[in-house]
Design brief:
TIM Barrel, alpha/beta, 10 helices
Length: 321
Amino acid sequence: MNLEKYIDGEVTKEIAMELVKLKGSDLLELFKVANMTRQKYCGDKIETCTITNAKSGKCSEDCKFCAQSEKYNTCITTYPMKDLDTLEEECKVAIDHNSDRFSIVTSGRGINQGTKDYETIAKFAEDMTKDGKIEICCSIGLLSEEELRYLKGKGINRFHSNLQTSIKSYRDIVATTHNVEDRIETIKNAQKAGMKICCGGILGMGETWEDRMDMAFTFKELNVDAVPLNILNPIPGTPHGNREILSADEILKTIAIYRLILKDTGIKVIAGRESILKDFMGNAFLAGANGMMIGGYLTINGRSVEDDFKFIENLKKLWER
């Protein structure tokens, strides 16, 4: 099967669904071609980002996968917005670790203008972007264009909001509290404000292959700059707490097809990189991925930063061969 034509050629949804069927040596060829596509369009740099769980738990939304929703009993640690000094110290650690980006992530429907939390984020961004040592991002819910434009003026140049799944299946994971259109509107508001967009999803919530491909083409249509792919680590107490964990071949196949569809868009492997992929973690970066989160996730710890950078150095040597 000649897959190299897809390095430059357009991959339609119909083609993507045919690629889903690949097995055995054809699947290995898919990974090879996805890696070649990554090298051509994205180069040999691993993009790294660090996040802080700046406001944890007691979220009003009913996302079925999330430990932070107040609707579920997950026994996580909850706390209000971290103060400015704490956020700035955490960001300085990320700078010391040579992370490319630092993102403030908060639970809740949105951190909106006129609140103390919103002003804390704005002041943090203003302070930490003065010397240009790191890019600042935020993932703070549903916001207006005006609210996002103000934050862009303070130094936040990238906004994160995941679609999580396909548009048609969104109601399967967020039952009542907001619509997928609310997220898409916020993404478009951020683009109008001049921000780059980080928008991804979660694999392993019972979605079909068609859902996964539909999600990829939505990212393409929205012209997002980076796609973080999380792998569901079922959390007891949530509606998805008993889901079967995805196999490595499904995850790697998804990453590879996403690379062929999205070409030069950054594809990051986020939550589940260590805990779900385990021995196959490196394969994700030989199948099209070019970014990762270091230093832990929201309510789950990751590996040590030192181990991640050793991994990155070894990976670069493989990419050079």
